[in-house]
Amino acid sequence: PTIRSSSAASDVYKRQLYSIANMVKPGTLVPDELTDDVQLPGLSLFMRLPSAIPGDECYNDMLHCTHRLAELLNGKILDETRSVLTQQAMEKILEDIRLFELKAKNS
Question: Is this structure's pTM higher than 0.85?
Answer without folding.
Answer: no
